[in-house]
Specification:
Blueprint: E1 7-12, H1 17-31, E2 35-43, H2 45-58, E3 62-69, H3 77-91, E4 95-98, H4 106-118, E5 123-127, E6 140-144, H5 146-157, H6 170-183, E7 188-196
Parallel strand pairs: 1-2, 1-4, 2-3, 4-5
Antiparallel strand pairs: 5-7, 6-7
Helix pairs in contact: 1-5, 2-5, 3-4, 5-6
């Protein structure tokens, strides 16, 4: 199914969220020849520089930073919605991957809610951040190759400022990909909640 999507939009509340949540899927989409555009909503200068290096590891060349105030995205909901509308009109994606509206981090849930508001007519799935929420019921699994997992690990490794965080541990990242894969009897996967599918 993932090969059917030729123009994907990845929405990350912060630099690092895309790589951690969907780094393997980004790698796979690019490997299959899809266009992939990534939007980072909140400003964080240190991690924005790291994001650029991480993007290179994934082969991601199309991205933009929206520059909203980190940790206070809930105060800028309309501004974020307006920018999402501009981006939708500009790139016309047929797949959107964004955080869950159930994410415990206020920035993540705000971005998830605004994405759901704006991208009603686009296939939309929310991605897996297991350290940020407890309510996540995946119903789509993207099978990853070893090369996709390796690229994800190399991308996350570029975030030197947060390398000591438990969720950046390469062994845990690979183990999670194996766990999600084991749920559907494949080696590696990333998991998503499908919100709506446009056929």
């Amino acid at each position: 199914m993932i090969s059917k999507f030729s123009n994907a939009l990845i929405i990350a509340p912060h630099p690092d969220d895309a790589e951690l949540g969907v780094g393997g899927t980004i790698s796979k989409l690019l490997r299959l020849g899809a266009k992939v555009h990534c939007v980072v909503v909140a400003h964080n200068k240190t991690r924005e520089d790291e994001f650029i290096e991480a993007a290179k590891k994934l082969g991601l060349t199309s991205y933009e930073m929206l520059g909203f105030q980190d940790t206070y995205l809930d105060r800028n909901r309309q501004g974020i919605l307006d920018r999402f509308r501009e981006i939708k009109n500009k790139i016309n994606p047929n797949l959107v991957l964004c955080p869950s509206e159930n994410d415990l981090h206020q920035d993540h849930s705000t971005v998830g809610k605004e994405a759901l508001r704006e991208f009603k007519n686009v296939t939309l799935m929310t991605y897996d951040n297991p350290w940020k929420f407890f309510k996540f019921e995946p119903n789509v699994f993207v099978q990853l190759g070893r090369e996709d997992v390796k690229k994800k690990l190399k991308a996350v490794h570029e975030y030197k400022s947060i390398r000591n965080k438990m969720y950046c541990d390469p062994k845990r990242i690979e183990a999670w990909a194996k766990f999600r894969g084991s749920q559907v009897e494949i080696e590696y996967a990333e998991a998503f909640e499908l919100k709506h599918l446009i056929l």
